[in-house]
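Q: I'm writing up a methods section and want to include an example of the input and output format. Could you take the sequence below and give the corresponding predicted structure tokens, formatted cleanly so I can copy it straight into the document?
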Amino acid sequence: QVQLVESGGGLVQAGGSLRLSCVASGSIFAINAMRWYRQAPGKQRELVATITSGGTTNYADSVKGRFTISRDKNTVYLQMNSLKPEDTAVYYCNADIVGYSRLTRNYWGQGTQVTVSS
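A: Here is the clean output for your methods example:
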């Protein structure tokens, strides 16, 4: 059994910062790519940032230069600076996790709300 648990969401004014965390726990042999997605009301879920096991990162154009994804062991972070009202969404952690069986499965966290006021 594997769980991803996010934390760090909240309400912030435009221009402010938040740091999201996501901890993976359970029967984990290794973690490959880890990602942050977000979903705003009435919109499709979109990929925000990815970090591979080797540390390579990729970002959506809308957050480049403002958001930074990083990881440490079983935790992935999303540092969000210069936040805009359009960043308001539920943010989800996602990861490709290798279990003790050596099978890889994709897991989602429960989501954390980020609200940016203008």
